[in-house]
Write a structure and sequence with these properties.
alpha+beta; 37% helix
Amino acid sequence: MWEGKPIFWDYITHDEHGRVNGVREDAPEEMKKAYEEWAKVEEEARKLGMMI
């Protein structure tokens, strides 16, 4: 579970509705991997009807 803002937060991108939809192309690989892990957790939570 995440506490505070994730380490990749300074690299996030948003869709036209303001939702997080990825990280910038120039983000370090570590940040890209952290985002992908976070996105998987978020998707699983949504499938279970949870918001995190």
